[in-house]
């Protein structure tokens, strides 16, 4: 059973702080890793993709991947109240045609 | 650009009634298509996926079924709904392998 684990939270950070979201996965053959943001009552929207070890930055978001430790993280700099949402980690299978989602971490950014 | 349409947005159905949810994708050919369900406050559960017309794989045994009558059309059905079928149903598409999934706006189904 391939698993993707996330702390359910809520993770509460003050406005302007860095939010750090973590995810571990069990399938060592995984090649693709994604972070989705899901606002309450809405569908998930893709915010980051990462395929190689190291960091990938896009605006205020930085995704970090460590395949040896089977660990993916998402950093949100200068957190805003509008960032308050549930963040889903998704890991692709070896064939690249299936994503396993974690249960999500609820982030609350307080003004 | 690619877009995905999913309807209806909300649905209230009595127990034992049939169900048909439809999803269509525009702007891409031969996408992988997926149906997920999300119970309230829970994660995403993969129900069905399809790599081509008429090719359906089921991940969870249940009273739901899926069909792909056309390349960019994916339909989720049930002959008789159960209370436990309530949830947020999401259709998604994938282009190239190892690329991300892109979700429709979802259908919120309440079975009463």
Compact summary:
Chain A is mainly β and 111 residues long. Chain A has strands spanning 4-5, 11-14, 19-25, 33-38, 45-50, 54-58, 61-66, 71-76, 85-92, 99-101, 105-110.
What does the secondary structure layout of this molecule look like, with pairings?
The complex is a heterodimer of chains A (111) and B (112).
Chain A: E1 4-5, E2 11-14, E3 19-25, E4 33-38, E5 45-50, E6 54-58, E7 61-66, E8 71-76, E9 85-92, E10 99-101, E11 105-110
Parallel strand pairs in A: 2-11
Antiparallel strand pairs in A: 1-3, 3-8, 4-5, 4-9, 6-7, 7-8, 9-10, 9-11
Chain B: E1 3-7, E2 10-13, E3 19-26, E4 32-38, E5 44-52, E6 55-58, E7 64-70, E8 73-78, E9 87-94, E10 102-103, E11 107-111
Parallel strand pairs in B: 2-11
Antiparallel strand pairs in B: 1-3, 3-8, 4-5, 4-9, 5-6, 7-8, 9-10, 9-11
Structure, explained:
The complex is a heterodimer of chains A (111) and B (112). Chain A is 0% helix and 53% strand. Chain A has no helices and eleven strands. In chain A, the strands form two sheets. In chain A, strands 2, 4, 5, 9, 10 and 11 form a six-stranded mixed sheet that branches. Chain B has 112 residues and is mostly beta strands. Helices cover 0% and strands 58% of the residues of chain B. Chain B contains no helices and eleven strands. Chain B has strands at residues 3-7, 10-13, 19-26, 32-38, 44-52, 55-58, 64-70, 73-78, 87-94, 102-103, 107-111. In chain B, strands 2, 4, 5, 6, 9, 10 and 11 form a seven-stranded mixed sheet that branches. Chain B has a four-stranded antiparallel sheet with strand order 1-3-8-7, with no helix packed on it. In chain B, strand 7 (64-70) and strand 8 form a beta hairpin. The radius of gyration of chain B is 13 Å and the shape is globular. The mean pLDDT of chain B is 94. At the A-B interface, strand 5 and strand 9 of A face strand 5 and strand 10 of B.
């Amino acid at each position: 059973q391939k698993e993707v684990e996330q702390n359910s939270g809520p993770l509460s950070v003050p406005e302007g702080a860095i939010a750090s979201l973590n995810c571990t996965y069990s399938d060592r053959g995984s090649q693709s890793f994604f972070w989705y943001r899901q606002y309450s009552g809405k569908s998930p929207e893709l915010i980051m993709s990462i395929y190689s070890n190291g960091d990938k930055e896009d605006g205020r978001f930085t995704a970090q991947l460590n395949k040896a430790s089977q660990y993916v993280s998402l950093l949100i700099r200068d957190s805003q109240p509008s960032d308050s949402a549930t963040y889903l980690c998704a890991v692709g299978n070896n064939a690249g045609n299936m994503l396993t989602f974690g249960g999500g971490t609820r982030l609350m950014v307080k003004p | 650009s690619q877009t995905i349409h999913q309807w209806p947005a909300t649905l209230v159905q009595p127990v034992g009634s049939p169900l048909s949810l439809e999803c269509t994708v525009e702007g891409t050919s031969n996408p992988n298509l997926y149906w997920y369900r999300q119970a309230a406050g829970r994660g995403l559960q993969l129900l069905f996926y399809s790599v081509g017309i008429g090719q359906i794989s089921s991940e969870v045994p249940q009273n739901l079924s899926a069909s792909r009558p056309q390349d960019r059309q994916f339909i989720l059905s049930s002959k008789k709904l159960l209370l436990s079928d309530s949830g947020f149903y999401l259709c998604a598409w994938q282009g190239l392998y190892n690329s991300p999934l892109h979700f429709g706006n979802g259908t919120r189904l309440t079975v009463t």
